[in-house]
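Hey L., structure's done. Input below.
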Amino acid sequence: MLHRPSALLLLTLLALPAAASAAQDPTEDGHWPSFRGHRARGVAEGYATPVEFDVASGKNVLWRTPVPGLAHSAPVVWGDRVFVTTAVRQKGEAELSSLYGSEGYGAGDSVVDEGPHAFQLLCLDRSSGEILWTRTAHEGVPLVKRHPKSTHANSTPACDAERVLAFFGSEGLFCFDHEGELLWKRDFGKLDAGAPRGTGPPGLEVADYDDYQWGFASSPVIVDDRVIVQCDIQEQSFVAALDARTGEDVWRTERDEPPTWCSPTVYDEGERAQVICNGYVEIAGYDLETGERLWNRSGGGDVPVPTPVVMHDLIYLTSAHGRLAPLYALDVTVEGEVPDDSEALAFYHPRRGVYMQTPLIYGYELYACSDGGVLGCFDAGTGEMIYRERLGTGTTGFSASAVAADGQLYFTGEAGEVFVVAAGPEFEVLATNDLGENCLATPALSRGVLFFRTLGHVVAVGETAER
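Output:
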């Protein structure tokens, strides 16, 4: 059980793991290699990070680079390079609709007749924002339609010292080197992560939606010489480990799972390395070496989006759609089936979960923000609620996941407002900042700089230009 230490002991405890794991955590060297950074934790420490910034006035804005097309994929950073993906409609301009508070919000209809797109990976200089190169991975009419709020480039890239991966769902997984040379590609066929169609087993109801297509969103993860992908789709869902050098399967494990939009998390810091996948029917951990299922549980929101996060030897999971909205934590040593009364459950809240955002664990608090901007703060060990407060006026949505640095939490609203909240048990909004346009992508963090992918730009925010 996690116990909240004294202030002096807390400083000591936080210093020890950082020193021990510096070689393993690329954020220590300024890298942000995948969705929400190293192991999806969303934290990058060691640098002063701005509280206040404003695109219109230029305050603390280092650069702002126009990027064509639509994308909800987050930026990733390796060394002096920033990588982003986008899908560019070749005739006409693609638009977002069904944003929070708009007419028809929550409608499931697919966008139709958009025509051919160019699916692209861009490399930007992290200091200047200059686009160093653009590679078109694929051109053609998308095989799967998108939700009005979605795009055809939702999956965040993944990178390491040698390669960068761009995943465009049904259009394929593409591996480039840092100079833009294509190393390999994989075609998984049609990955239709559309509205669930009543595919749940007995005892787990799944709403039988119309035949909507909503687009693919799961992001890949690179761990050592492997690439992990989670593909929860209408038929033949799976999780797989690929050889990072060739793209060939190392192992593939079928999942009894309807469509999800969750990304996998790799936990390899204990005795048992595992790939952890959120879901509805099959929330599970799989052996990193073999793909063997180690544990599983079922239930929660029937259209899950958030990614699992591991901190303090606990696996934090949430979902919120339909009858239940759970928020809970499991011991990382969990085995076998996990019912609601399992001793492996550190805590379980049936109605405090969130729909869109991946939760954030920072220090000894757990933060979970709803798509309507209601922020819950919990004790990360016991699950005890500390506060529940609203960000903003309730008129904007929150799709991007939060990140943290320098004692501050960053929550990005769909309208482009970024709420900076003080970390800790007392709720305090330090600043509300304006990005100037819609933003549904999670920011990247590197050496005190925040990189935002807004509707039409990549924006770098930092206190000084020398980083």
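Helices lie at 7-21. The longest helix spans residues 7-21.

-- N.
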